[in-house]
Design brief:
Elements: H1 11-19, E1 25-28, E2 34-38, H2 45-51, H3 53-63, E3 65-69, H4 76-86, E4 102-104, E5 107-109, E6 119-122, E7 130-141, E8 145-146, E9 151-153, H5 154-160, H6 163-172, E10 174-180, H7 188-192, H8 197-206, E11 210-214, E12 218-225, E13 228-230, E14 237-239, H9 243-246, H10 253-263, E15 270-274, H11 282-295, E16 306-310, E17 314-318, E18 321-322, E19 326-336
Parallel strand pairs: 2-3
Antiparallel strand pairs: 1-2, 3-16, 4-5, 5-19, 6-17, 7-16, 7-19, 8-18, 9-17, 10-12, 10-15, 11-12, 13-14
Length: 340
């Protein structure tokens, strides 16, 4: 159950922060996300963001997410322009964790999972050796019901995780085992966006990922990654991994049982272990999921809304929904973890 989480910042501090921002738009919110609403001027969002990059970054570093309302950014093309106004270069989506559709130039659909499914809270690509620093979302089609993009502040999540669990992950890190090409998830061609095995192998070697080719054109990878991360600008320490999402207990019990019988634990499409290869207890990832649920904040999407998210500071997810829904996504500012 998603709940409203008050910011650590007092309302008067929010007002003071808003007063220091540029004029010609309106500011509001004492809860996530920080809202910037179009005022009476006819300024376009890409023009405004381009002029005020430093202030947008300051808001992102303080709140973790900024929601722009009233600017009419309701297409992949318009999102591309706004994202490029904030960052001069957008990222492709390689080493994919979930299926997406390319909607425009480096703009993608949000995860293409069934509308009945919950997508748990996660940092984009925290299972990889590199990840985007900033995410951009725009609402093109609003669901009839549900379809929220909940947010959680990982500066608070990491404080809520029991010290014993936290230290165990910090000491051991996380190992992700993935099997591409089983017919029940993505194959390696979709995940790495290439038909070339040598290109995939070069990428995996550069990222210190162990791999082996199995019969049936299946690719198995093992990668040890971080459990926490340090924000490169604010120095905030955050919980930063996909353990609770990739762990096999995240599946329905019957699906998990079927896949384990069909492919074995190691042969499942994806799974997460401690970095030494030992199993992560179901109870541990259940606690982490529960903490994320307790800290999740949701807001109502409106057509044309744009959401900027600091991918270090906040996790995001998706609620089930009814009716058509389309959220476009772009990413920028690749960060590489050289300590793996």
């Amino acid at each position: 159950m998603e709940s409203i989480l008050e910011n650590d910042v007092e309302p008067q501090s929010v007002a003071a922060f808003s007063a220091s921002m540029p004029e010609d738009v309106q500011y509001e919110s004492s809860v996530l996300p920080f809202i910037i609403r179009r005022g009476s001027s006819a300024v376009s969002l890409d023009e405004w963001v381009s002029r005020n990059r430093a202030d947008v970054d300051r808001a992102l570093h303080r709140y973790g997410a900024v929601l722009f309302k009233g600017f009419g950014i309701d297409s992949a093309e318009r999102l591309n322009a706004v994202a490029l106004a904030h960052s001069d270069e957008l990222l492709d989506y390689i080493e994919r964790g979930a299926p997406r559709i390319r909607l425009g130039d480096k703009v993608y659909s949000s995860t293409e999972y069934a509308k009945e499914e919950v997508i748990p809270m996660h940092h984009e690509m925290s299972y990889s050796h590199h990840w985007p620093t900033t995410l951009y979302f725009c609402s093109e089609i609003v669901a009839e019901e549900g379809g929220y993009t909940p947010l959680a502040d990982d500066r608070k999540v990491i404080r809520a995780i029991p010290d014993e669990i936290k230290q165990r992950f910090i000491d051991k890190k996380v190992m992700y085992v993935r099997n591409y090409g089983l017919g029940v998830d993505m194959d390696w061609r979709e995940a790495f966006q290439t038909d070339s095995k040598p290109v995939v192998e070069e990428y995996l070697a550069a990222s210190k990922t162990q791999f082996e080719w199995l019969p049936g054109d299946v690719l198995r990878t093992r990668a040890v990654r971080q459990a926490i991360a340090v924000h490169p600008v604010t120095n905030d320490i955050v919980w930063f991994n996909h353990a609770h999402l990739f762990h096999s207990s995240n599946m329905p019990a019957d699906v998990r049982e079927f896949l384990a019988e069909e492919f074995t634990e190691e042969g499942m499409p994806r799974n997460a272990y401690y970095g030494d290869g030992s199993p992560i207890e179901d109870s541990v990832v259940a606690i982490i999921r529960s903490i994320y649920d307790q800290h999740a904040v949701r807001f109502e999407w409106e057509k044309g809304d744009v959401l900027f998210v600091d991918n270090f500071l906040l996790t995001h997810g998706r609620s089930p929904f009814k009716g058509p829904r389309r959220v476009c996504v772009a990413m920028s500012k690749l960060y590489t973890n050289h300590d793996i």
